[in-house]
Give the backbone structure.
Amino acid sequence: MPQNQRPIVHHHIILKPHHRWIIGSASTILIIFMITVSVFTYMTFVRQELNYGLLNKKISDIQKSTQTQIDEMSSTLLVIRGSLEEKQQQIDLLKASAGEDFSGIIESSIPSVVIIRTDSGQGAGFIIDEGGYIVTNAHVLADESGYLATGIHAINYGGERIDLKFIGYDSELDIALLKAEGNYKSLKLGDSDDIKIGENVIAIGNPYGLVFSVSEGIVSGIHREGPNRLMAYTQIDAALNPGNSGGPLINKEGKVIGINNFKISGGENIGFALESNYIETAVNNIALKALNQTII
């Protein structure tokens, strides 16, 4: 080796104990920091999910509460409407009871009255059940030979033609039952045992083709004998003419107490209506035979 060159010496870095401790501590701190950040991130996510769930529940509770309030308001409005309708009926009743006109009762009753037409003639009828059952006099449906006429239909207060199905009839009481498809406003039968002589009544019908004519009168007698020898007729002085047959006789409460049937020929304002209790019996007997059910 040349004298002026020094031998090459390799130096190894040897960490002292305190240096190793510092590096280990830094690594530990870094790991702890990363773990802390991860835990914090996870907790933040969990908290957000929890808040989201609580928010959804609160929204759902608000929706339920709102719907409940809407339902309660709807129920209240229905009750108010029903109360107003009841008050109007009471007003109409008070008007009639005080001797005023029947305009309120006529207005509410006439949509349930129909004109009955056949190929042979015409008369009147009225709806006794919301399912479209109509009652009239059996003789209204008979042709000149006494058989069931053809082309039976009804005309309502709005002028519409309604096809009718013949259900059956009671020849003794001169009652026939018909059926129209659909739902309709019906008239209610009163108790004819409660009819009083002198009380005001109205008859609605189709006299001489004058559709939906109304005549007013009083009850002149009760439980009169009819052509069938039954004491089943109310005598009235309200005008009845051909075409009135089958129409309702209505009292001051807006209930049907009879079906206008016939008048004394040559007499002035001496008409008769089959009492409502007999109407109910006849209709239910017809329905039981034809449909195996009662109607009213």
Q: What stands out?
A: The first strand starts at residue 113 and ends at 117.
